[in-house]
Amino acid sequence: MPSKLNINGRKVDVHSDPETPLLWVLRCELKMTGTKFGCGVGVCGACTVHVGKVATPSCQQTIKTVGNNPITTIEGLQGPQANALREAWTRIDVVQCGYCQSAQLMAASALIQGNPTPSLKDIDCAMHGIICRCGTYPRIRQAILEATGQLKRT
Fold first, then answer.
1. pTM, 2 dp
2. 14-23 pLDDT per residue, tens
3. Which domains does the chain have, with CATH numbers?
4. Fewer beta carbons within 10 Å, N or C terminal of the chain?
5. Alpha carbon of 143 to those of 25, 31, 34, 110, 115: distances in Å?
């Protein structure tokens, strides 16, 4: 019997076993490849999505544990915070290899949805679980601060 998931505002039938990690359902069954595979054990953060409003490594959530909680992937990330972050990411030229960037944006978005004026410490705490092998952390911090400043002005 298929499970129903609420992904990016749509109810979606999935046929994977309820113990299947959400990451594999997104990438393999639903072909939503913006969520990246990294370590598979929840320590690199490359697979971060929102479950509810919380940035969560999707490799550590099964279909069963997600339940009826809304899931937002990078493909469905939208709204003023997402737009401000994307603009700041581009202006500051955050991206190098780009592999972690969907996860970085998901974590940053969850942060500023819950805390519209984060301190540097707040940013570091929210972003600490997403590994960037290119080391663009200073530019990521700068982009988040710029995005929050832009949102305050609007």
1. 0.94
2. 999 999 999 9
3. 3-73 (3.10.20.30), 80-153 (1.10.150.120)
4. N
5. 31, 29, 20, 14, 15
